[in-house]
Amino acid sequence: MTMVIRKSSSRAMTCLFLSQLLPPTLSHHNHSFSIYKSCRSLSKTPSDFLGSIWCPTVCAAPTIRSFSSKFSESSTTARMQNPESISYLTQREAAEVDEILMGPLGFSVDQLMELAGLSVATSIAEVYKPSEYSRVLAICGPGNNGGDGLVAARHLHHFGYKPSVCYPKRTRKPLYNGLVTQLESLSVPFLSVEDLPVDLSEHFDILVDAMFGFSFHGSPRPPFDDLIQKLVQLCKFDQNHQKSPVIVSVDIPSGWHVEEGDVSGEGVKPDMLVSLTAPKLCAKKFTGPHHFLGGRFVPPSIVDKFKLHLPPYPGTSMCVRIGKPPQIDISALRQNYISPELLEEQVAADPIDQFRKWFDKALAAGLREPNAMALSTVGKDGKPSSRIVLLKGVDKDGFVWYTNYESQKAHELSENPQASLLFYWDGLNRQVRVEGSVQKVPDEESEQYFHSRPRGSQIGAIASKQSTIIPGRHVLHQTYKELEEKYSDGSLIPKPKHWGGYRLKPRLFEFWQGQQSRLHDRLQYIPQEIDRKVVWKIVRLAP
């Protein structure tokens, strides 16, 4: 049975969630931005335990590469922006923006808090992967900033982290009670101040500072004064610890003045600051390595009224980096893979069946173009070359892709009809390597596939003389335009004689599963003839 590869059109869950959560007029706007500080009048904090009040904080959401991944991609990394070109809000302006959002624009506290917490969790996932920074402590105050922290803890749990929460002064309102109930239903532990370990660095990898928002005034009262000091002490170099936990502050680092920054020098010095709505003036004093802005729903009326200059969000991402990321030592880049073991007794006897099983998992995981594969060829000069092509079919006879028969790879295959394919599925920590002989597929098979492609792709295959030197992109556009006009009547576009498919007939498979400490699983399938039948022998290779 032939396995035909088709592109998935599924959308990210995040997009669906946001489209339902935001008012229709605000859910799709070019300048959308992250505002989440809620109306001060709805978020007063009892003055018996804080010298003042604070309010919700702006929300952002993820690139959930990813999680797509990657957490990935990843996944996908948010776009950098020059801090000098970004708008910064005063405390009065931030309060006024909230009043507009919570008034005529119709946002509710719980909407904005949900988006804010999601943005914080997503920003964390952009930089600190759960494979290395899994243990999280969210320290939450009694106001809306604390609510952001509670929501962030819930999303971090679903992202694969192991959050705990310190919430010493709880706000007895239905919204906050519900957030606590949601976390308790996930078995997220709540720790009292007394239960906190003396040395936080031994028990946690990430500390989320969600104690004070931009409307806080005065000096923190117990127990928040001591909690801030705990975080401050962690910022000081300690010879006894090779790795101190990173600190992530929500909108305003605790102990900072909203406009003047860490005036006393006794405030929290975070590694990451997640600004909400727009950065506050104090963010100009932030010197940590990671500054993110969250959310993307500021309407044009607010942008115009406050003359805001805010960075665009890439793709469907709900957080965007401000400033350049820290310089990274390439030699220090590494992942400690966490995967289920790949055991001989668990894999299929036929490598094609095993490939289909893994390919189906890659599809189900929502990985982008899981049919992308590196094709490596070698010409008569002995020099190898590689490129990414797309798998278009797989069956018992092998792996099929389509290309121009006058391209470099085609010339090399005509001289040496041997090739290697490599699939890499980052989100699953998996690779599949396939080696074998290559031959062209029957012309009728190429013809059938060619006419299944979009008309634009058919015209593109004719317009491009692949691998030849051209004077500029305008040549391609001009040729394409002429062909588009030629076939504008909807007539059949003939397949070029120099275009068609190849099939690689496998003679070797290797399935690779990433594991901790580089003790990866590598299972290789080698064909053997027994009683005039080809069977596949499975052997394990050292990583």
Automatic annotation (TrEMBL):
<feature type="signal peptide">
    <location>
        <begin position="1"/>
        <end position="27"/>
    </location>
</feature>
<dbReference type="InterPro" id="IPR012349">
    <property type="entry name" value="Split_barrel_FMN-bd"/>
</dbReference>
<feature type="binding site">
    <location>
        <begin position="213"/>
        <end position="219"/>
    </location>
    <ligand>
        <name>(6S)-NADPHX</name>
    </ligand>
</feature>
<keyword id="KW-0664">Pyridoxine biosynthesis</keyword>
<keyword id="KW-0630">Potassium</keyword>
<keyword id="KW-0547">Nucleotide-binding</keyword>
<keyword id="KW-0413">Isomerase</keyword>
<dbReference type="GO" id="GO:0008615">
    <property type="term" value="P:pyridoxine biosynthetic process"/>
</dbReference>
<dbReference type="Pfam" id="PF10590">
    <property type="entry name" value="PNP_phzG_C"/>
</dbReference>
<dbReference type="GO" id="GO:0004733">
    <property type="term" value="F:pyridoxamine phosphate oxidase activity"/>
</dbReference>
<feature type="binding site">
    <location>
        <position position="254"/>
    </location>
    <ligand>
        <name>K(+)</name>
    </ligand>
</feature>
<comment type="similarity">
    <text>Belongs to the NnrE/AIBP family.</text>
</comment>
<dbReference type="InterPro" id="IPR019740">
    <property type="entry name" value="Pyridox_Oxase_CS"/>
</dbReference>
<keyword id="KW-0732">Signal</keyword>
<keyword id="KW-0560">Oxidoreductase</keyword>
<comment type="pathway">
    <text>Cofactor metabolism; pyridoxal 5'-phosphate salvage; pyridoxal 5'-phosphate from pyridoxamine 5'-phosphate: step 1/1.</text>
</comment>
<feature type="binding site">
    <location>
        <begin position="144"/>
        <end position="148"/>
    </location>
    <ligand>
        <name>(6S)-NADPHX</name>
    </ligand>
</feature>
<dbReference type="InterPro" id="IPR011576">
    <property type="entry name" value="Pyridox_Oxase_N"/>
</dbReference>
<dbReference type="InterPro" id="IPR019576">
    <property type="entry name" value="Pyridoxamine_oxidase_dimer_C"/>
</dbReference>
<dbReference type="GO" id="GO:0052856">
    <property type="term" value="F:NAD(P)HX epimerase activity"/>
</dbReference>
<dbReference type="InterPro" id="IPR036652">
    <property type="entry name" value="YjeF_N_dom_sf"/>
</dbReference>
<feature type="binding site">
    <location>
        <position position="209"/>
    </location>
    <ligand>
        <name>K(+)</name>
    </ligand>
</feature>
<keyword id="KW-0479">Metal-binding</keyword>
<protein>
    <recommendedName>
        <fullName>NAD(P)H-hydrate epimerase</fullName>
        <ecNumber>5.1.99.6</ecNumber>
    </recommendedName>
</protein>
<comment type="subunit">
    <text>Homodimer.</text>
</comment>
<keyword id="KW-0288">FMN</keyword>
<keyword id="KW-0285">Flavoprotein</keyword>
<comment type="pathway">
    <text>Cofactor metabolism; pyridoxal 5'-phosphate salvage; pyridoxal 5'-phosphate from pyridoxine 5'-phosphate: step 1/1.</text>
</comment>
<dbReference type="GO" id="GO:0010181">
    <property type="term" value="F:FMN binding"/>
</dbReference>
<dbReference type="InterPro" id="IPR004443">
    <property type="entry name" value="YjeF_N_dom"/>
</dbReference>
<feature type="binding site">
    <location>
        <position position="145"/>
    </location>
    <ligand>
        <name>K(+)</name>
    </ligand>
</feature>
<feature type="binding site">
    <location>
        <position position="251"/>
    </location>
    <ligand>
        <name>(6S)-NADPHX</name>
    </ligand>
</feature>
<dbReference type="GO" id="GO:0046872">
    <property type="term" value="F:metal ion binding"/>
</dbReference>
<feature type="domain" description="YjeF N-terminal">
    <location>
        <begin position="94"/>
        <end position="310"/>
    </location>
</feature>
<dbReference type="Pfam" id="PF01243">
    <property type="entry name" value="PNPOx_N"/>
</dbReference>
<keyword id="KW-0520">NAD</keyword>
<dbReference type="InterPro" id="IPR000659">
    <property type="entry name" value="Pyridox_Oxase"/>
</dbReference>
<dbReference type="Pfam" id="PF03853">
    <property type="entry name" value="YjeF_N"/>
</dbReference>
<comment type="function">
    <text>Catalyzes the epimerization of the S- and R-forms of NAD(P)HX, a damaged form of NAD(P)H that is a result of enzymatic or heat-dependent hydration. This is a prerequisite for the S-specific NAD(P)H-hydrate dehydratase to allow the repair of both epimers of NAD(P)HX.</text>
</comment>
